[in-house]
Amino acid sequence: MASTRRHFLSGAAGLALGLGAIATDGLVEAKEEGTAMRRAMDGARDRLVYSTLFTAQNVNALLKDDADRQRALAFCRDIGISKVYIESFRGEYAREELLVAARDFYRKQGLAVSGCVTTVSFGKKSTGWNLISCYTNGDTQAKLEEIFRFTARLFDEIMIDDFLFTDCECEECQAARGGRSWEEYRLALMLDVSEKRILEPSHQVNPRCKVIIKYPQWYDNFHNRGYGVDTETAAFDRIWVGTETRNPTAERWGAKQQYEAYFIYRWLSGIGGPKTGGGWFDTYDCSPEVYVEQAYQTVLAGAPEVFLFNYGDISREANRPLMDRLKAAQPQLAKLAQVASIKPLRGVAAYKPVNSHPDGEDYIFDYIGMLGIPLVPTHRFPGQAKSAFLSMHALKDRELPVKLAAYLKRGGNAIITSNLAKRLASEPALSDVPGLAAADQPTLSSTPWAGTLVVLPAKPPFTSLYQLPQEELNRVRNAVVLPAAGVQMNAPPRVALYVFGNRELVVENFADEPADVELRWGSGEQGRARITLAPHTVRQVRR
Ligand SMILES: [Zn+2]
Question: Looking at domain 48-340, which of 3.20.20.80, 3.30.930.10, 3.40.50.300, 1.10.10.10 is its CATH number?
Fold first, then answer.
């Protein structure tokens, strides 16, 4: 929860990049592009869209007149921002004449312009976090509808910042909940309110209006507060993904690992498909390095638009080093955006069912990605994948034991957490699998069938996984990555790997130290690359 707090309060740097798209270490051979490759690149967007938000407070304070609007325009042009969202409500309304003036001015200047609403501090207060509302309450619902009727009159697209949830346990909510769990009640309530008080009125006022639900980055908590990513994604016109991981050592934001942004974007875009519009991150507690890592993750995950929250923050002098670093990274980000669109995405399928409970393994996917295991996030059981990662989340799937047995029989390889192994050990469907025992060390076992099973001890804090000796990590990683992606990596933890199509590899060093990385996809020098990655840098390698 704390991880979203500063969003609201917000009113109140050249890389040693190897900027070329192809590593030029001499060990990596630049080969002629094949036809398939060229077709994929032609189909890719040649340009990423950068956007920002004028919060309602920004509109009232920083867009008061033409000089203000010109100043903001110059800033946007400097950063390459070609789309702006102009917010009508965030606990208070922006003045209508300022909204209209800004909308018309930026449209005339050739920028794309959309609206935005942040559903905080209106109606009846939640018994939980005081910015949040009680959505059972009729007055809250009426005010919500009023905000969207007002906004849809002005804009053809409305972004909703990630406060469209509730943690209220008032008597009114308890009575309405009846015998249901809070999870069931809130999922039903927020869908109903979204349909009746947001979508229907917005579409009625302006039939062209598209409404975007932006999901926060706290994916393992969605179900508790009413974010139903299957039902809401089906209901809304578009979705957006919070990729605001911030500083990985900042406890107040949950010490989010950088890979989380990639994981959540890929997972939600697997649910949203073409409805998925982009990623969104901010500046809080960020060094220039970790700020720009959010951009790398957003772009590698396939986002066509990078939303920089918000104008008031990013234009602040203190944040100039962040923006300078972003500008220096933009040529590489454009190239990575093309690479990221190449299909198929290869790697180890990572199964998080919709509304699944972490059961003590909160956000473990992020740590697995940080180990250099390229994940292919999915909300469906990956029955056809060559390798899969399974955690406690998978228990949401009642048929998991039977599906996993069939998967291993077919020759699929699985890497599972020790907690899940313990849970599955007594399942009749898996009684022939010898490896399902608690382990203190990563354990590789062959199953009676074709597939290999790896049990990975997982005890919080999961940063302890980064203590695995590199040899051990290589062994675990290669057991699942080689069959799935045709590549082996020798690298320390905190170096992530991404595999796109048949030829494109990307490696990223999230650590504060340089990392020696060896990639191997064939025999001899032709089939490998050796790279030293500077701290917090990304490199593309073509095999
Ligand atoms: Zn309530």
Answer: 3.20.20.80
